[in-house]
């Protein structure tokens, strides 16, 4: 097993976390806040103050079962990559889309995946791609939120969550 990590921002982290956690090869997920200007922000601070953080999901995955390029391709299915600072009904800088990496060797994979996404997209892709500067876990009630609140708000279509749970990423 080759354990790796990547950080994905795709609007409200509840749906992103649920979707990504269903992908075969994902070991664990954590909802949190990334690449902001404050230390250890609360959800309320990120939502109502200018912290610069994006709602983000930390993803630990097995790169032998789930190559990063495939994980990113699956992630791009649930975002609208041309929307700036919003996804679904959520609007604000904290809902921007992004891929944040810790491992410099992942930078080229992220860049290539976004170039491919741009070729397939009408409009300018505005997904951030940069090194992770910081990440702070969200409060416990945000972790696995849709498991705890099955009827909770989610901008990610339920059909996508059900679909991704049944696929083999190595056949993508």
Shape verdict: globular
Low-confidence regions: none
Estimated helix fraction? 25-40%
Number of helices: 6
Trace the largest sheet across and list its strands.
7-6-1-3-2-8
| β-strand amount | 15-25%
Write down how many β-strands occur, each being a DSSP E stretch of 2 or more residues: 8
What is the straight-line distance between the termini? 20 Å
Spell the H/E element sequence: EHEHEHEEEHEEHH
Main sheet: strands, sense, barrel: 6 strands, mixed
Average residue pLDDT = 97
The Rg value, from CA coordinates, equals 15 Å
Helix vs. strand class = alpha+beta
What does this protein structure show overall?
The mean pLDDT is 97. Strand 6, helix 4 and strand 7 (128-131) form a beta-alpha-beta unit. This protein has 6 helices and 8 strands, in the order E-H-E-H-E-H-E-E-E-H-E-E-H-H. It has helices spanning 13-21, 43-48, 68-76, 106-119, 145-148, 158-165, and strands at residues 3-10, 26-34, 54-62, 86-87, 90-91, 97-101, 128-131, 135-137. By secondary structure, the protein is an alpha+beta fold. It is globular and about 40 Å long. 29% of the residues lie in helices and 24% in strands. Helix 3 (68-76) packs parallel to helix 4 (106-119). It starts with a strand and ends in a 7-residue tail after the last helix.
